[in-house]
């Protein structure tokens, strides 16, 4: 494990904590896309099918359990919690899941490391994670006042992806036979989706203004 | 035989 990978994972963890903080303490999910959260739950459920069959490390298993548990509990909170669910604006969060799920599934059936159920599901989760942020980005554009926690949440998610790219570059040069086209290409696409958001995030930070994305 | 890589990343 290199420093970029660890920093990436910690940033990912921090993004989840920021979102949980918003939900638990402020009891609000305003500006958060349930569609994106449901897609993430599906991403982790399909990627970590190996959790009980392939042991990599205690760190790996613990992180998997954290991401599975947090993603499903976030979905539960937004859908079912008495107070939190009231702040969810369904009319703004209109992205359709299957526009993303079906193409990712077809791609996973065509492009995978091995044609087995586990490997197809793994490839599907990689493709789906790459585009799962789209409903959230669409919702951000529609939101007039993006609160700080929501802005930080999306920023941390983007930073996590950027750090993973540095991790891959590092591993490519330090490990033999480290080539992973599926994760690299999807990861690059995923990070590029944040480019526009990053631009406005830094602009608002530089000018000390509230974050707002142009429609 | 196509070999799937070990998945050590999250």
TrEMBL record, chain A:
Report any one BP term from Gene Ontology. vesicle-mediated transport
Annotated membrane-spanning segments are 55-78, 98-115, 121-140, 152-170, 182-202
Claim: Mitochondrion is one of the keywords in the record: no
What are the entry keywords?
Endoplasmic reticulum, ER-Golgi transport, Membrane, Protein transport, Receptor, Signal, Transmembrane, Transmembrane helix, Transport
Subcellular location, in the record's words?
Endoplasmic reticulum membrane
Where is this chain primarily localised?
A: endoplasmic reticulum
Q: Which GO terms describe its molecular function?
A: ER retention sequence binding
Q: Which Pfam families match?
A: ER_lumen_recept
Signal peptide segment? 1-31
The superkingdom of the source organism is Eukaryota
Single GO cellular component term: endoplasmic reticulum membrane
Q: Which PROSITE patterns match?
A: ER_LUMEN_RECEPTOR_1, ER_LUMEN_RECEPTOR_2
Q: How does it sit in the membrane?
A: Multi-pass membrane protein
Q: Which family is it part of?
A: Belongs to the ERD2 family.
| Protein's name in the database | ER lumen protein-retaining receptor
């Amino acid at each position: 494990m290199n420093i970029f990978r660890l920093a990436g994972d910690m940033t990912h963890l921090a993004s989840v904590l920021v979102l949980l903080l918003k939900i638990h303490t402020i009891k609000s999910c305003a500006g958060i896309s349930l569609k994106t959260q449901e897609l993430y739950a599906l991403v982790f459920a399909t990627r970590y099918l190996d959790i009980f069959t392939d042991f990599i490390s205690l760190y790996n298993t613990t992180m998997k359990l954290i991401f599975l548990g947090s993603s499903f509990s976030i979905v539960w909170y937004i859908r079912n919690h008495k107070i939190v669910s009231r702040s969810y604006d369904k009319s703004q969060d209109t992205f359709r899941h299957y526009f993303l799920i079906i193409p990712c599934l077809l791609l996973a059936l065509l492009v995978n490391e091995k044609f087995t159920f586990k490997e197809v599901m793994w490839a599907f989760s990689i493709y789906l994670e790459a585009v799962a942020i789209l409903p959230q980005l669409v919702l951000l554009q529609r939101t007039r006042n993006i609160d700080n926690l929501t802005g930080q949440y999306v920023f941390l998610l983007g930073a996590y992806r950027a750090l993973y790219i540095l991790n891959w570059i590092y591993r490519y040069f330090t490990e033999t036979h480290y080539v992973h086209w599926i994760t690299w290409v999807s990861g690059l696409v995923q990070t590029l989706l944040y480019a526009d958001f990053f631009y406005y995030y830094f602009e608002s930070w530089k000018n000390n203004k509230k974050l707002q994305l142009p429609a | 035989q196509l070999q799937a890589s070990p998945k050590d990343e999250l």
